[in-house]
Amino acid sequence: MSRKEDKVKDEHKDVKDQVEEAMEEAIDEVGANGENADEQPDSKEQELTEEEALKEDLQKEKDKFLRLFAEFENYKRRTSKERLELFKTANQEVMTAMLPVMDDFDRAMNELKKSGDENLLKGIELIHNKLKETLKAKGLERMTIEQGDDFDSEVHEAITQVPAPSDKLKGKIVDVVEPGYKLGERIIRYPKVVTGK
């Protein structure tokens, strides 16, 4: 072989080596870009999933907080309501204990009116009115029931039935034996009545 042929072969070899190197570099670049391209969506997906996971955790914590807050508000409302009921109940026991005293005063007033002693009547009236006003200021209210009112089993306690003195009083209240009292809106003693039949 001549030198010229050797030179051409060497050039071809060099060109071939250069082409192979260029191809390897291109393949490496494409591989690297391909890997980067694959890695980027994965990292984006991971970031999105991490972000979504954090959002879900945040939402769960918010829900948990709101439920806890609502439960606490209900607890406060319930305890304040129970406290008010306790005060009313304590007051109710005292008021219920005072009702027989009021009944005795009413009977005493009726008897004193029959006796005709004006000075004694005025003195007892003053004490009676003072007691009534004091109890009224604490929420005690006498229920107003009169002869001829309709009988209501939810509000009245019938102790007996008598023949009605007139047709108008049939099924109605004929007489009030014992007055009823309310404490606020609650009836603490139902009025005892006689109804006509």
UniProtKB/TrEMBL annotation:
<dbReference type="InterPro" id="IPR000740">
    <property type="entry name" value="GrpE"/>
</dbReference>
<keyword id="KW-0963">Cytoplasm</keyword>
<comment type="similarity">
    <text>Belongs to the GrpE family.</text>
</comment>
<comment type="function">
    <text>Participates actively in the response to hyperosmotic and heat shock by preventing the aggregation of stress-denatured proteins, in association with DnaK and GrpE. It is the nucleotide exchange factor for DnaK and may function as a thermosensor. Unfolded proteins bind initially to DnaJ; upon interaction with the DnaJ-bound protein, DnaK hydrolyzes its bound ATP, resulting in the formation of a stable complex. GrpE releases ADP from DnaK; ATP binding to DnaK triggers the release of the substrate protein, thus completing the reaction cycle.</text>
</comment>
<dbReference type="GO" id="GO:0051082">
    <property type="term" value="F:unfolded protein binding"/>
</dbReference>
<dbReference type="GO" id="GO:0042803">
    <property type="term" value="F:protein homodimerization activity"/>
</dbReference>
<protein>
    <recommendedName>
        <fullName>Protein GrpE</fullName>
    </recommendedName>
</protein>
<dbReference type="GO" id="GO:0005737">
    <property type="term" value="C:cytoplasm"/>
</dbReference>
<comment type="subunit">
    <text>Homodimer.</text>
</comment>
<dbReference type="GO" id="GO:0000774">
    <property type="term" value="F:adenyl-nucleotide exchange factor activity"/>
</dbReference>
<keyword id="KW-0346">Stress response</keyword>
<dbReference type="Pfam" id="PF01025">
    <property type="entry name" value="GrpE"/>
</dbReference>
<dbReference type="InterPro" id="IPR009012">
    <property type="entry name" value="GrpE_head"/>
</dbReference>
<feature type="region of interest" description="Disordered">
    <location>
        <begin position="1"/>
        <end position="56"/>
    </location>
</feature>
<dbReference type="InterPro" id="IPR013805">
    <property type="entry name" value="GrpE_CC"/>
</dbReference>
<feature type="compositionally biased region" description="Basic and acidic residues">
    <location>
        <begin position="1"/>
        <end position="19"/>
    </location>
</feature>
<dbReference type="GO" id="GO:0051087">
    <property type="term" value="F:protein-folding chaperone binding"/>
</dbReference>
<dbReference type="GO" id="GO:0006457">
    <property type="term" value="P:protein folding"/>
</dbReference>
<keyword id="KW-0143">Chaperone</keyword>
